[in-house]
Specification:
The model has no long low-confidence stretch (mean pLDDT 95). This protein is mainly α. Helix 1 runs antiparallel to helix 2. The protein is built from three helices and no strands.
């Protein structure tokens, strides 16, 4: 038979290990999400820059929409 205090210590150690693992997993997931958001934001900024250039060259809005994927409203705001 194992004394109660030893069982309590084992449980505390297991809880600490589980917390560490949970933090590690959460951090990895957060980094993945942040990376994806960063890529998406960069692509959006690239599309906006392209749309501005096309707009300065008096390209038709339909052409700008098809090349950039931006909406008509987004392009008109530029």
């Amino acid at each position: 038979m194992v004394p109660a205090y030893e069982l309590i210590e084992r449980i505390k150690k297991q809880e600490a290990e589980l917390r560490k693992e949970a933090v590690k997993i959460a951090k990895e997931e957060g980094e993945k999400t942040g990376h994806k958001k960063g890529i998406a934001e960069g692509e959006k900024q690239k599309a906006i820059a392209m749309a501005k250039q096309m707009k300065q060259n008096y390209e038709p809005i339909e052409k700008i929409i098809s090349y950039t994927g931006l909406t008509k409203t987004e392009i008109e705001r530029l």
